[in-house]
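Section handout, structural biology tutorial.
Before the tutorial, make sure you can parse a SMILES string by hand: atoms, branches in parentheses, ring closures as digits. In the record below the ligand is NDP, and the chain has 255 residues. In the tutorial you will relate the predicted structure tokens back to the input. Do not try to memorize them.
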Amino acid sequence: MVRVAITGINGRMGTMVSEMVLAQPDMELVAGLDLKGGKQVGPIKVSDVKDIDSVLKAAKPDVLIDFTAAGAVVGNVKAAAANGVNLVVGTTGFDEGRKAEMAEAIKAGKVAAIISPNFSIGVQVFLKLLAQAARDLEGCDIEIIEAHHNKKKDAPSGTALKAAEVISSALSEKPRLVFGREGVAPRGREIGIHAIRGGDIVGDHTVLFACEGERIEIKHQAHSRSAFAAGAVKAARWIVGQKPGLYSMGDMVKP
Ligand SMILES: NC(=O)C1=CN([C@@H]2O[C@H](COP(=O)(O)OP(=O)(O)OC[C@H]3O[C@@H](n4cnc5c(N)ncnc54)[C@H](OP(=O)(O)O)[C@@H]3O)[C@@H](O)[C@H]2O)C=CC1
Ligand SMILES: O=C(O)C1=N[C@H](C(=O)O)C[C@H](O)C1
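Predicted structure of the complex:
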């Protein structure tokens, strides 16, 4: 049995991930944490995240799945790593400094961790297509447009930033990133990134390769958060069998 704990269990992703974990015959939900404790989820009562250290010590999970917020994830990762708990981190919006802090804690705790801004399998294919298009269409103008629901806190999305990173790595000359445009804004060697927020859009990412006389658009649309939740549950099962270290979705789904 894989013993699973979830931080952010009251949230949109945490709720769906906990339902999926409860439905897995080889998984056991042993702890759930959020800013507000008390709710019953399957066999467990949600704990207040301020008690994370004692909760992890008592529940002894094999893996912690985190879908919280940019300002919260580092503390949760540090607590898990210090208690020898492997990690699946889906939270987005943290900067390079916070990323480095998490990497340090994961190394010091000698745990295995997978951190990904998008756990859908389709997005892994999308990223591969972007790398190929970037290589084959070098010189074309590149714009990334993402759209999400009106409750999303971070912008642009972690997936849009990952797409920019993948495209940049495939190009021989690295472009700068331009976040939106206004006023006099002549186009240079750049990737434009644009965030749309509205209604209940689950998550759309479109990359435009605009050339002379033609253009290509590569698009991924999530119809349901189940695409992300299923990938996170798969990652939880996978990460407990890995050697200590930091992994990406690319490591998990590579052929
Ligand atoms: N990698 C992926 O595939 C995906 C990533 N995401 C990312 O996951 C994150 C969560 O998204 P979503 O579920 O929609 O957001 P929600 O706001 O619905 O859920 C986050 C939950 O975490 C709680 N929380 C805040 N701080 C802490 C803390 N310190 N410890 C424990 N819980 C805390 C929030 O409480 P409160 O509401 O009271 O603040 C809330 O219940 C975002 O960063 C989002 O971008 C989302 C979808 C897919
Ligand atoms: O907050 C969301 O909802 C999502 N966030 C992730 C991101 O920032 O890339 C992934 C997905 O698009 C949904």
